[in-house]
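Weekly modeling sync, notes
Attendees: S.R. (lead), two postdocs, one rotation student

Agenda item 3: backlog of single-chain predictions. S.R. asked that every request posted to the team notebook include the full sequence so nobody has to chase files. The rotation student volunteered to paste the first one in as an example of the format we agreed on. Action items at the bottom.

Example entry:
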Amino acid sequence: MNLTNNTPMETQTQDDFIMLPTNDVCFAGLMENPKVRKGFCAAVMRVRPEEIAETELLPTHLHREYADDKLGILDVRVKLIDGVQINLEMQVRNYEFWDERSLFYISKIFSDQLKSGNSYGMLQKCIH
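Predicted structure, as returned to the notebook:
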């Protein structure tokens, strides 16, 4: 900013933002940054960021075995190096049946970990 002219200082307001991080598309974009993703996951899990070695983005479309199975599309799906999966949903408005939807999502994530012949001991924690 040029302070030598006589124009008043401009201040940025919330209305100047193109997209707020509460928008699910913007939120997903922020989570593409490994540092942001690691810090956010640490905050959600209430651990120090140093305790999270690595994060990986996973596909957000949940597996459907049959064409008429319910489609589930997550905002952000993260896998930690130890196998823990986290579903991050940005929701700012009240959503009817949110509890049921959340349970559906996390159940699909949890059950999709196992394939035929796998031991139940292979299941990792899933966080929603």
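Discussion: group reviewed the output briefly. The first strand starts at residue 55 and ends at 57.
Action items: rotation student to repeat for the remaining queue; S.R. to check formatting next week.
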